[in-house]
Amino acid sequence: xxxxxxxxxxxxxxxxxxxxxxxxxxxxxxxxxxxxxxxxxxxxxxxxxxxxxxxxxxxxxxxxxxxxxxxxxxxxxxxxxxxxxxxxxxxxxxxxxxxxxxxxxxxxxxxxxxxxxxxxxxxxxxxxxxxxxxxxxxxxxxxxxxxxxxxxxxxxxxxxxxxxxxxxxxxxxxxxxxxxxxxxxxxxxxxxxxxxxxxxxxxxxxxxxxxxxxxxxxxxxxxxxxxxxxxxxxxxxxxxxxxxxxxxxxxxxxxxxxxxxxx
Length: 263
Ligand code: LHQ
Hints:
Helix 1 runs parallel beside helix 3, helix 5 packs across helix 6 and helix 9 packs antiparallel against helix 10. 45% of the residues lie in helices and 16% in strands. It is of the alpha/beta class.
């Protein structure tokens, strides 16, 4: 029997590429095929000029239940965790964080373990009212991986992150919004449409400037203020030299809306 595609691709005319994790019967728990397909699709999206924003979401009721626990042991019953992470999750998270396009994680349901890390890795995180984030790793006596130890303390502070991790606390949408784990929460019934409208709004923004903004934020997260100030000065030149900037200034002077979509 042929296996269904682990990641479904959908392109809209308004420049939004949606990547849907597609193992709904396992709450989109990730196996190698899914992780490689997602990373590959993101790399392809980088080169597709017609696609300006990427949305990652889940099929069915879950977003991603983390690593497929049935899929990690070898025949001897052991797992090479380090190698596994290096070959799968590390390139995935690096690709998302380095992508020169905004990535939205649209968290439709439960995001657990490495699925929670994936949910947090978006430039923008949109949650359904049914979204739940669980740093579930300690339930199976593992440490948070796929970037959770880097991302979560920066969002909620070290002690709150540790508490969430230690107790594998279930964080629902209301708390997720309060804690800064997501930017917006939408009703489950309108979630897909609301995400699409948001993504199209983002796609109409100046893409070169947004890519450089993402680059500047990524740099600043690991730098001193002095280094960040200088990096801004360097990247601002790249933004200012781009046709997008000239369009923005022309539109301002002409008292009209800029058309950034043409670039
Ligand atoms: C699953 C999974 C799953 C397989 C639900 N695997 N089937 C990296 C590198 C190397 C190794 C290890 O790990 C990592 C990073 C990690 O991500 S470690 C963390 C791995 N994930 C988990 O431990 C989560 C396990 N799942 C759960 O705790 C629950 O399923 C959650 C809280 C996510 C959802 O609970 P419910 O909404 O009550 O759904 P459910 O438990 O009934 O799950 C539905 C089905 O999905 C069920 O199958 P079944 O045949 O009984 O209907 C689950 O077995 C299956 N499933 N997660 N990770």
